[in-house]
Each structure stands twice: as structure tokens, then as C-alpha cells.
Amino acid sequence: MDIRERLGRNIRRLRQDKGWSQEELAHESGLHRTYISDLERVARNPTITVVDRLALTFGVPVGQLLD
Amino acid sequence: MDIRERLGRNIRRLRQDKGWSQEELAHESGLHRTYISDLERVARNPTITVVDRLALTFGVPVGQLLD
């Protein structure tokens, strides 16, 4: 599975585990809601600083989003 | 430590563990030598597909490059 697919699947899983909507994850992370939607639909190739921000928001190591 | 610093430090450590020059890592990964040098000097903010290619080259999970 492509790393962008792994990221999209992991964001959705971690977000739903927290019971957050995409809007709530956008608010918590400071990223735009449409960008969150794009990431979950594997429509983006984000930089590592974006992924680091999401990992900090979820309180998980970056590897849990990308491996 | 910023994620880009962690990446630069981990690339250098993994490369030296293999006894590779930046030129050899560039050849193995298909990335340009100057780009490898920039990553190690924390002068770039790469996308996750670049990091995935490096992880595959080193044979390690992406988390070992970013956490």
C-alpha cells in the first residue's frame, strides 16, 4: 500500500477513534477541513512537517501515521 | 527536535551505518546527491513519498527515519 494511502487510512482511523469530525480535527490541528478531507481521500502528497503536526495533534509517533 | 532535524540525523546515521557516501545513497535511492546533502543539513521539507523511497532504500520502516 502506497504511503499516502497508509496516511489517509491512519488519519481516518485515529480521527474516528477520538470521535472527531473532519471539522474538529481541522480545528485541533490548525489545518483546513478540505485539506484533511483531501489527505483522507489520498489526494495530497504532504510534507513531513504537516504529518508531524497531525502526529502531535493525535499524540502518537509519526510512524503510527505512516507505517 | 524538529522533524526535519530528526530526518537529517537519521539519514546520516543510517547512511554511515551502511558505509555509504552521499553519492552512493543518491545512486541507491534515485535521488540527487545535492538533495541528499540538503536533507542531511535540514535545508528541505520533503514530502512523504520521498521519505518512503529512502525508507525502502535503507530497508527500515518510515518511523525509523522520522521518530
UniProtKB/TrEMBL annotation, chains A, B:
The protein's name in its UniProt record: XRE family transcriptional regulator
UniProt cross-references to PANTHER family, sorted A to Z: HTH-TYPE TRANSCRIPTIONAL REGULATOR (PTHR46797), HTH-TYPE TRANSCRIPTIONAL REGULATOR SUTR (PTHR46797:SF23)
Taking the record's annotation, the residue ranges forming a coiled coil are none
- Which CDD domains does this one have? HTH_XRE
Q: Does the keyword Transcription apply?
A: yes
Q: Which InterPro entries match?
A: Cro/C1-type_HTH (IPR001387), Lambda_DNA-bd_dom_sf (IPR010982), TransReg_Diox_bact_type (IPR050807)
Q: Which UniProt keywords apply?
A: DNA-binding, Transcription, Transcription regulation
Q: Which GO terms describe its cellular component?
A: cytosol
**UniProt lineage:** Bacteria, Pseudomonadati, Pseudomonadota, Alphaproteobacteria, Hyphomicrobiales
Domain HTH cro/C1-type: where? 11-65
Q: Which GO terms describe its molecular function?
A: DNA binding; DNA-binding transcription factor activity
